[in-house]
Amino acid sequence: MGYHETYSPNGWKWLGFVSAVWVQAISGNNYTFSNYSDAIKSLMNLTQLELNNLSVAKDIGKAFGLLAGLASDRLPTPVILLIGAIEGLIGYGLQWLVVSQKIQPLPYWQMCIFLCMGGNSTTWMNTAVLVTCIRNFRRNRGPVSGILKGYVGLSTAIFTDICSALFSDNPAKFLIMLTVIPFAVCLTAVFFLRETSQSVSVAAEKEEARHFAIFNVVAVVVAFYLLAYGFIGSTNQVFSLVFVIILLVLLASPLAVPVYSFYKSWRLVRFEPDVERREPLLVQEANETAEAAERNEVINDEPPVAVEEAVVVEKSRPVIGEDHTIFEAMRTWDFWLLFVSFLCGVGTGLAVMNNMAQIGLAFGHADVSIFVSLISIWGFFGRIASGSVSEYFLKKAGTPRPLWNAASQILMAVGFLLMALAMPGCVYIGSIIVGACYGVRLAVSVPVASELFGLKYYGLLYNVLILNLPIGSFLFSGLLAGYLYDAEATPTPGGGNTCVGSHCYRLVFIIMALASILGFGLDVLLTTRSKNIYTKIFTRRKSKKPSTTMESNGQ
């Protein structure tokens, strides 16, 4: 048995989590379309509907995430990361060649293909990261999801602010960043991100909670740092360079956690002479305990519900809380409640993100980069807060996670109504509300799916849920926002169009508010239906802790 396998599995697990954070910090490039959409629109003389359909093509790439889901159970994590890295290099690389005018604008259908490739590249990255980390930290799914999805939310602001600081918001240089940086980061993560053995003791669970608190603090510091720069802006070249250097140091600072874990392992080896004799036995016992738990318990810490009766009556129909194949999940009402409510949340949120450049101009804001950054940063706060808060209330009171989705949906409806009424500062307020609520929806739905339908086929289940991104983008951005905007817009020379005034998107916002209210009702229904399973999670965890603590003290 190798050194790192025997003495420092936690160090390698945390190093993998840090690399996962870096991958997520660069995988939100799908949300940055507004930063260079105007350049594509003017170069190709597109109408708003045609431009929106390009953004839909970008999101349709996520539909092919099913391939990543299928591959996640068959290919190792490094291979999945490499596929995403290479696909992103090609997809965004061709867009850069067009926008930088290195080549003539491609035919419209070819641009659709390369935007689709760019969108699909992130599904491979996200699948590799989420599936691996959720399995590595099964008893802290909320914080894992919140932190990882939080950095996805920050990635838009990271790219936007770095481009603003170094390249004065040049769309061509922005695209070269989207081409090169994700490729380099994924190549780094290939060496560290992989599944590891599980920790089963209460002490290990508490240590995980402490480390996740550190990740949360660092992420919040990064978010406030980006937010401050968004309002201050670039004053001179030296200031901009210092900003970028400090940002990179902050992004690297989570490395302190695996370094500390490796240091602890080294001290055990260096200063405890008998550790070599005791450690293999302890590791073996821990592994045997974990394997027994895998065999005799449902994978998401749920107690078996009438297991013997279920086997006798219908062996092929697992109950909610047990492992489901995708087809078994799709036979349940709970899956479709989660699926459609997810569509109402992410579809409307994507419509705002994809059209933010035109929404800002319609309300009289020539520079929309601040709104893009606001959506990104508040999306981060929504993700990271909902992950930790939902986990806290689940452990303390058994509160069903879907309840937080319901709260986000009704708040999002309020944000859309504010923008429909064109209240003073509504674009600022709407950007904050939509970003935060969209973040809550993404972060909470990830552990909900694993808790209702298990982890065994989670890679595919996750990517089926993510189908809502292209579907929602097509319905709310491509059809709804595109057609209604063009109906209000006036033609411009060269074949494009433009619209200025609050009337441009009023009906769009009203319809999306109604969709959010529908999503709220579905989330409330799912909360009611899943209350028993979350009560059992709460009861099981509460009953396990005293006995596990006694065993640890006895050793």
Automatic annotation (TrEMBL):
Residues 13-259 form the Nodulin-like domain. InterPro entries: MFS_trans_sf (IPR036259), NFD4_C (IPR056555), Nodulin-like (IPR010658). Gene3D superfamilies: MFS general substrate transporter like domains (1.20.1250.20). One of its GO terms (cellular component) is membrane. The chain crosses the membrane at residues 79-96, 108-134, 146-168, 174-193, 213-232, 238-263, 335-353, 359-381, 402-422, 428-448, 460-485, 505-526. The keyword Secreted does not apply. It is found in: Membrane. It is a multi-pass membrane protein. Residues 329-534 form the NFD4 C-terminal domain. This is Protein NUCLEAR FUSION DEFECTIVE 4. It comes from Gossypium hirsutum (Upland cotton). The lineage of its organism: Eukaryota, Viridiplantae, Streptophyta, Embryophyta, Tracheophyta.
